[in-house]
Amino acid sequence: MAEAVSDPRRRVVQEGLIAKSLTALARVIQWILLSLLFSIIVEWAGMVLWWPDEGIEHSRAMLATEISYLESDFKRSVVTSDPAQFAKQFADNTYYYLFEMTRFVDFIRWVSPPPAANEQGLRPTLHKIYQPTAEFVIAMMQVTQLFSVRLAILTQAMPVFLLFSLVAMVDGLVQRDLRRWGGGRESSFVYHYAKKAAVPLVVITWVIYLALPFSLHPSFIVLPFAALFALSVAVTASTFKKYL
To answer: What is the CA radius of gyration of the chain?
Structure first.
């Protein structure tokens, strides 16, 4: 088999800062949309299998519970002075742009009333299709609002990751200096794996909390993953090579 001859005119195209940023943003949006889709599917499955008696009240109760967490335990935030109002406004804006501006709410109001006995046209047919799925459609809208509230909560919780990482970085750099002047061993294996674990921990935090099919205080999700994120930063800084 003839060996491929490399063309000296070929150049390796490297992504610039803007391209990398856009790629990262696209991936974040992709994960957010997948989490929303998963949340809706789980809610629909729960309405059939796990909480059939509650129906649409399950998602409605979760929405009220998530907002109550903000009102009772999160009085202030670095992002905003009123976290609860910020989350409500974010959810209302999401509802407006997704369902009101697109006329989806108007369509539901038009197709929901039972047709008259002699009514002709498309609406009687659409009503027959919509009626068995009405609760699932309403649940989907409520889950989307719940998703928006959780998204606002996570946005306000990101400074916790920053604070934990700053403390961990200082501690890790101190450990690196002690290792450097004490003649400690260097492990590139640990360094690379700890470095690769940092970003997935943040992504997992968002995916798990956004897709939860039940209400859970955000501290039980944010704080453990923030601690793991800080641990990965500390290990990365402490195992960084001794000589630059």
So the answer is: 25
